[in-house]
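Form 7-S
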Amino acid sequence: MKQVQSVSDHDRQWLVQEAERARQILQEAVTEALWEKKVRGHYAIFADKDGNAIRVEAEDIPVDISAYDPVAGDGTLHTLAPQSGAV
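Output:
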């Protein structure tokens, strides 16, 4: 029979904090990647619930860029048009 090891409240709290920290890091990375795609006028590929690929023009994805754009420090969502000559 497998022995179940209990997790202390302190360890559980630490695990929850680490999971939240990892979620925030991932969310920031995804936001930054989408912002980069929007600035450059690229598209993004997502998967629907059935695993089918969906192409979305990046300029149509609302992204909170206030952390990356000092002018947009109001925390609102912005839709950027591709810059002319964007690569």
